[in-house]
Amino acid sequence: MKRVGLLAAALAALVLPATANAHVVLSSAYPDTQSRLPTAPTEVRLGFSQSVTAGPSAIQVLAAGGRLLSGDVRVSDDGLVVSVPVSGLRRGDAYTIRWRVTGPDGHSPAGVYNFGIGVKPPPPTEAVGAGATTWKDDVARWLLFAALALVIGPLAVRLLVLRGPVPERLERRFHVVTTVAAFAVIDVGVAAFVVRASNALQLPLADLLFGDLTPFAQKTRFGVAFLVMTVGFAIVTALLMLAWTFDRLDLRWPAFALAALLVSGLSLSSHQGTEPGSSVVSELADWIHLLAACVWVGGVATLALLVWPAAPELRRRAFVGFSRLAVAVVGVLVLAGVYLALVRLPELSDLWETGYGNVLLLKLAIVAIALVWGGVHHTFVRPRLEAGGQPRVRASLVGESAVAVGVLLAAAVLTNVAPPPAPPASTPAAQSGR
After folding, report:
1. Which domains does the chain have, with CATH numbers?
2. Does the predicted model carry a pTM greater than 0.85?
3. Tell me, what DSSP letter sits at residue 58?
């Protein structure tokens, strides 16, 4: 009964929204958020759900270089509409709107978005005045990768390697680790989203609570991926908790499949899905690369932290079975990684001449260490286990896990570093002049 009560409380937390006070929200905007206009507007109008007060700089319209293009702020008699005249806007350019007003409750909602005139605007994360990614973005992405690995890796080992009954102590550890990690994916995903929005809004955390995050959540690939992954992992978490509470271990299969599918959200919103030269193939390769990394890193951690201390009688079976799986997984990981490197690095010299290439070299070095470490296990430890020996290998597995986590850190940093631009395509005139 205790487990059923815990399940009910957890599912309620996942499903039921928290009650919030009715703060001021942006109800309308012209130009609309992240819109593309055929002609230049002469004013910017923002409508709000409640009467607001606005200072002289409540709305700022900024050109790419930071030049202010808006005039004096005007507020309607009922306080529901704030507007400013704009001038000097040109077709073919994109512009940033930054706004901040004060509501009747004393809070100051704020927001930022872009619009283009005849062109698609950049995402709000690239708005004028937005901050670059920081170590906070790297840490949030790293923790997200680690949480994904601790959902997918243990499930892969349990479903593909250790089929059938296992000791109750080990089963309980599988339940705890995968369920907690699924909750962590949701929480860390929220933190990563907030950090990214904070960089663009340039607001302290206290004010960010009242910021308008709609342009980030609904009109960017990053935001849509965040929403889909959050809802999706709520379902994954519910499936894992149902499997735990009612001993319905078959529910782990749809949880595993859905978690693996949701990883694609990171690929669709990464360099391989948004940068010039991206394609369906690069998105697919990035998804396979990340999924293989989750199985590999999470699987090694599972052997070291779950199987070895909790089920000595299954060490041989788990190690040998995962060793076979790891050969295929690592092969796919390397092939997909090589392809992605070729897509993102137009020239070999980009490896040592660009920041993206430098981080990639660091990642490759850590991967090489991990592969050598795993190769030693495969070559020397596996035969001894197959022969019935009991080598002391847990410390080595923990070490390999630590190195693999370092690979995830390098991958997290790499996702926040801009790749080198693709070389310009040769024009017919240039080709004829050769």
Report:
1. 26-126 (2.60.40.1220), 135-415 (1.20.1630)
2. no
3. S
